[in-house]
Structures are given as structure tokens and as C-alpha cells.
Amino acid sequence: MRNIIYIFIAVVFLSCNREKPDFLGGSLNDQFGELLVLDSLTSSTSDFNFSIVSPRFFEAQWSKNLNWQLDVVGVQSGATKSFTGFSSKLDIDNTSWNGSANDFPSFLTESCVATLVLSDNINTITMSTVVSITELKPLQDNLMLVADFEEGMPVNTIKFVQQGESMTFNIESGQAANGTSYYAMGGIVNWDYYLGSIKVPVETEEYINVSPLLLYFNMALIGGVLGEVPANQFMKIYLREDDGERYSYEINPVNWDTWRLVSIPYSEFVLESDPANNTKDPGTINQIEIMSLSCPSGPGTIVGGGTACPENMGLQVKTDIDFIAFSTNESYQP
Length: 334
Hints:
By secondary structure, this protein is mainly beta.
């Protein structure tokens, strides 16, 4: 009898001290409550000046926690910055913006449309607001800009272009990855993989004590629409050092039709020359070479003895580049 009483007291004690159970999958309101907008989408300021340190963010509030997405799109550049989360509001904690984009292209000084999408199992609500970028974000620390083609080619750049059809190795204006100008590389060469290249001199003494693991080569790169460009077009990047060593990295294939950031640690480049000290020395890089390549369609003899790709007949290579830069410790942030 005494044991039964003890057990009863223990059960009552535990029941009285038991914390309120969590609802599986969130609160009843989150699962079944009506989705209502409490505060419409607004921005902390209508003009975003990213050149100064100041909070810039978006605000909105709704009636329950759910997954949301906010996309800010540049009207002129087409650049996009996305924010996502699970909550019932937007504020400085989840939409603070420093002017960066998800990827290239980068934003310009332009108007931007911010669009918030809220969706539960029943309804989808979309809200928009407009903000203006009045000043761009500064370049990140420890960045060495090699070429952005806004004011022409870097001094002493060496350009090589094969004889071919519709060869376009020139600075072009329009939908650039950063700013308004980029370098177009492409054309049709049906007898050689190699279409052309540029060699850009650089001085990297400031990186003398930087590990190859922490030095990044950054570049914006765009291909073209498959079916209009060869599916197997590619690029090769060479970094040359003072001792004559040449290190390479191949981007193969270049099969996308929007600007993308390519960011490669120097440690991932491979030696493609006779060794000197067989050691990557970031502080002695003196030249960047960027080559545009593709499997030639033929017919006839292929330079180097490679196999032709007749499916590429009449397709024009497009491997355009922009914003060549070195950064340390992290990739460039468009």
C-alpha cells in the first residue's frame, strides 16, 4: 500500500512540473492560421548609399511563421540579391544588405525592385517596393583589380586571335558583369582548339607572404545558349611566375548563358611547364593568360592531331570575360 502511495505522489509531482509540450511541426497558428499581412513591405530608406557604413534593410510583418523569399533585382543591370528565412517578419536581422549580389552581374547605381513572396499551404502573397542605389559598395579588402575593361585594356596586354570566322576578341559595351564593358572572346575556328587569348601583366609582390591556399583568382565568365554555341567550349587560365614556372587551371565546359563568378584558389592550379623550384609563389606571379578554346568541327586535319567535333559545325564560340581580380582569404563578393 505504501509503495502505491509513493508511486501516486511521484506521478502527480512529475505531472505538475512537466513543461508545456512542444507542438510537432510548429504552433497551431503557423499550421492552420489565416495568412494576413500586418505591415506591408518597406525599406529602411528609399536611397541606398553603400559607400558609407549605415544600416540598410527591409521591413514587413505577417500573421504567422512561414518560409519567405525576398529578391532585389536591379532594373538596368539585372543583378539579384536574395534573402530567405522562416519567420513572421523582415527586419535588420534577416535582410541587412551591403550592396552585394548573389553572383555576377553586380549592381549599378540604379533603381531596384524588391519583391517579397509569402506562401503557406493555401495562399501566396506577393509584395513589392522600389529602392534606388545611389552609391556602390566599396571593393572588399585585400582585392587587386587586374582588369574591368571600363577604360580599355590593361597596359601592355598581348592579344592573339586565330584566323577564323566571326572572330570577336574586343571590348564590348552592354550587359557586362560589372559596370558597362566586358571583353568578348569567341568565333569559329574549324581546324584548331585554340581560338585566341590575352596575356595581362601583373605585379603581385604584396602577396609574397600569402599561402597559395589563400590567394584566389577571380573572374566573371559567360558562355551562350546551348545549340547556338558548342557544348564543349572551354577556357584555360595560366599564371606565370618570375622563375618561368607556368601553372594552369581549365574551366571545362563553359556551358552557361548568364554571368558567373569563377573563383579558384591558387593551390588548385597545376604545374604545366618545366619545374624551377616546383613551388607556387603568389608574390612572383607576373602574367595572367586567358585562352578561349573549343573542339573544332573540321573537316580536315586538326592542329595537334585531335579529333574533330562535326556537331559544332557553324556554332560560334562565346567565352566572354569581365572583372579579373585577385583576392586573399576569400573569393570576391560581387
